[in-house]
Amino acid sequence: MKMGKRKVLLVSYEMSYTGSPIAVLNLAKAFKKLKYEIDVWTLNEGKFQVEFEKLGIRVESIAFKSMDNFIIEKRLSAYEYIIANTIFCVDFAEWASGFANTILYIHEAQNLVDLVKACNIRRKSIENILNVFCVSEYARKSILNQYNIKNLYVLPNYVEKVFLLKQKKKDNKIRFLVSGTYEYRKGQDVVEEAFLELPSEFREKAELHFVGAMPEWSREYQDCIKKKQIDNIYIHNEIRDRTELFRFYDYMDVIVVASRDESCSLVALEAAMLKKCIFVTENTGALYVVANKNFVLPTGDVKRLKQEMQYVISINRRALRHEGIENYKLYKKYGTKRIFCKQLKNIMEMIERGNESGK
Question: Is 82 helix (H, G, I), strand (E, B) or coil?
Fold first, then answer.
């Protein structure tokens, strides 16, 4: 790598309390750990910017299409690398690559094709980027099935370890949680249907909780979830405070990632870090933190999900805690900040060697 000050510019499409901005924040923390100087630009302002400011990183909102090329070239030339995050920043990445070494970090998987079509993104805009990151082997396979990308590196997400005081539960019910934006892709409907199909003697021993952002564009889907709500199904709004969110997770027993397509899943990593039992679908990139492969479920399979729900309701809590401990071992092996920094360092060195050889 180059000697002296190393500067990286991270570009986020938006600044909401959702997966992609959180992943950008984690990326910023990792680069700081590797002694890079970090600047962050966003194409759309949002309340999540305060989380960067807590680290002493100012977030600058930019409208790059209206910027003077001479000024922008001067600014971008100060950075060793520019990393544009999510497919929604591909126009920026293609534009910035004319001024500096630019990497596109794709956070999507199978849904990439639909997003490209919906946003009228040209195939060549993606394929013209010299170096591209993605978040899992599952995502890599999905991307390469559709696009001809020469240098596609897998850089999985990570979550930092948190320490929480143990909470005393009011009863012995098994609590299932689905966390994420209320939308069809996240599969809340599948979990709700499986829960409702449980025999009453099992359902009365359990609760089902949903938590996440409720955007206007998925209002119809949210209404469908709420319409089937019964006494032991609880629908919660987004929890923005991370400590409060983790305390909420910790009160749950089983975290369910029911997504029809999930490139990696920070929720699964967070659950493993908290030593929770986890259900994931086969279309989830982070299934590597689930030790019990019986809990890696066919996507959209209500019957199979119901069976596994019945199983964890019927086993004792010691066995349930064991599931969480085994998942935590995998988190320690694959999902920590230390592992991520090592992977990031290796990838950046590979890219640097490629630049020096003219590839």
Answer: strand
pTM, two decimal places: 0.91
Beta bridge partners of 254: 176, 277
In the Cβ-directed half-sphere of 5, how many Cα atoms lie within 13 Å?
Answer: 5
Instruction: Specify the pLDDT at position 162.
Output: 93
Alpha helices per DSSP H over 11-152 = 19-33, 49-53, 69-76, 90-96, 112-118, 123-127, 137-144
> pLDDT tens digit string along 157-215?
999 999 888 888 888 999 999 999 999 999 999 999 999 999 999 999 999 999 999 99
Helix axes 266-273, 317-334, angle to 10 degrees: 120
Q: Tokens standing for 94?
A: 């293609």
The neighbour count for residue 220, using CB atoms within 10 Å, is: 8
Interstrand relation of 174-179 and 254-257 (parallel, antiparallel or unpaired):
parallel
- Taking the CA atoms of residue 17, residue 331, residue 107 and residue 278 in that order, the dihedral angle to the nearest 10 degrees is -70
Place of tokens 């990696």: 264
Determine contact, residues 13/88, Cβ cutoff 8 Å.
yes
Q: What is the DSSP string of 140-197?
A: HHHHHTT---SEEEE----------PPPPPSS--EEEEEES-SSGGGTHHHHHHHHHT
CA atoms of 27 and 33, how far apart (whole Å): 10
Closest CA to 233 of 210, 199, 201: 210
When pLDDT is averaged across residues 60-64 and rounded to a whole number, the result is: 88
* CA 141 to centroid of chain Cα atoms: 17
Contacts for 12 with CB less than 8 Å, ≥ 6 apart: 20, 21, 24, 40, 41, 42, 43, 85, 86, 89
* pLDDT at res. 359: 55
321/219 Cα distance (integer angstroms): 36
- Average pLDDT of every residue of the chain: 93
Contact 42, 61 (CB under 8 A): yes
3 state DSSP class of 345 = helix
